[in-house]
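Recap from last week: sequence in, structure out.
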Amino acid sequence: MATMNFSIPDDVKDEFNEVFEGENKSAVITGLMRRAIQEKQQRAKQDDAFDALMEELLRARAQDPPMSDEEIRRIRVEGRP
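Predicted structure tokens:
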């Protein structure tokens, strides 16, 4: 098992010790770190998926010819109930 050393503000340390009194603080920190890693990885996956969707959208839009204002108005009128 590895050891990590880092600095935190005194008020955070004091509150952490108070809130997690009597608990295995190493286990608590390990759990928090695992959760942070999972959240970061999930955000990266979501960002990648969003980027892929945007690329596909831009590719699709580039292939569609632009519509005139008149065509857009006609489609809007036809789509109304």
